[in-house]
């Protein structure tokens, strides 16, 4: 009675971060509420080391391309986009397409790196299985925000990737022990001919020195970090 029984489209324009000036002033990058008054040492984040390494690998190999589902800034890929604008693809918030697109590029001889947050990769689980891993295509998944993300909030917790990725045949899943090993794992993945997922946190690295020369890491081989007699710790 008195209501229009027909479809109604309501277009509401909002202001991101309304009421909090720092958020209103940075609609692209302000996705979290940072801790106040906390001083941090100037150590590069894993995301920054990832982007610097990708830029280095792209300079060395013209077949390296990067795909991101609407997160070029979050993945620190602006430096890559500035130097190689034709080799970085922002497909928007379309994670499934990002993975299938990467698979297609791999069939044509490219080395695609899918730069994606852990929490968003789970949207493309079917494509990971059917379009990449069953075909054994050399797609690299660079999985940022793996583990607990803190300030980014519970929607961005990267707590499921190990569980669902280790189920998938033909996929290597790796987690670097520090930022130096991250760059070597990326180099290893680019040199490989199989699918590989590299997961790393959103935080700053450990502050270790970064090797100037990249080398391949043997897959499936352990490393003894410290010798002792009383306790054995496997990690």
Q: Quick recap of the structure?
A:
This protein is α/β, with parallel strands linked by helices. The chain has a domain at 46-199: Rossmann fold. It is built from 8 helices and 6 strands, in the order H-H-E-H-E-H-E-H-H-E-H-E-H-E.
Structural features, described:
The structure is a single chain. The protein has 235 residues and is α/β, with parallel strands linked by helices. The protein has a domain of 154 residues: Thiamin diphosphate (ThDP)-binding fold, Pyr/PP domains (Rossmann fold, 3-Layer(aba) Sandwich). It is built from eight helices and six strands. It has a six-stranded parallel sheet with strand order 2-1-3-4-6-5, sandwiched between helices. α4 runs parallel beside α6. The model has no long low-confidence stretch (mean pLDDT 91).
Helicity range: 25-40%
Number of helices: 8
Q: What number is the mean pLDDT?
A: 91
CATH architecture of the domain at 46-199: 3-Layer(aba) Sandwich
Taking the sheet with the most strands, its summary is: 6 strands, parallel
The order of strands across the largest sheet is 2-1-3-4-6-5
User: Which descriptor suits the 3D outline?
Assistant: globular
Poorly predicted residue ranges: none
Give the tally of β-strands.
Answer: 6
Query: From the alpha-carbon coordinates, what is the Rg to the nearest angstrom?
Result: 20 Å
CA(first)-CA(last) distance: 67 Å
């Amino acid at each position: 009675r008195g209501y229009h029984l027909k479809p109604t489209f309501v277009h509401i324009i909002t202001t991101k971060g309304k009421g909090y000036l720092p958020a209103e002033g940075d609609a692209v990058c302000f996705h979290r509420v940072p801790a106040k008054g906390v001083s941090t040492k100037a150590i590069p984040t894993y995301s920054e080391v990832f982007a610097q390494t990708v830029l280095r690998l792209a300079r060395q190999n013209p077949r390296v391309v990067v795909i991101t589902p609407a997160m070029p800034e979050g993945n620190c890929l602006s430096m890559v986009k500035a130097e190689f604008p034709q080799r970085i693809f922002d497909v928007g918030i379309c994670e499934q397409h990002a993975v299938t697109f990467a698979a297609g590029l791999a069939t044509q001889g490219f080395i695609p790196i899918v730069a994606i947050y852990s929490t968003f990769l789970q949207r493309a689980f079917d494509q990971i299985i059917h379009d990449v891993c069953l075909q054994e295509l050399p797609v690299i998944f660079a999985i940022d925000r793996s583990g607990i993300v803190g300030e980014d909030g519970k929607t961005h917790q990267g707590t499921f990737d190990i569980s669902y990725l280790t189920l998938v045949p033909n996929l290597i899943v790796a987690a670097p022990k520090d930022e130096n090993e991250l760059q070597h794992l990326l180099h290893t993945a680019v040199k490989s001919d199989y699918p590989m997922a590299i997961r790393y946190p959103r935080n700053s690295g450990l502050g270790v020195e970064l090797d100037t020369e990249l080398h391949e890491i043997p897959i499936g081989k352990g490393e003894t970090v410290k010798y002792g007699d009383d306790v054995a710790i496997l990690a």
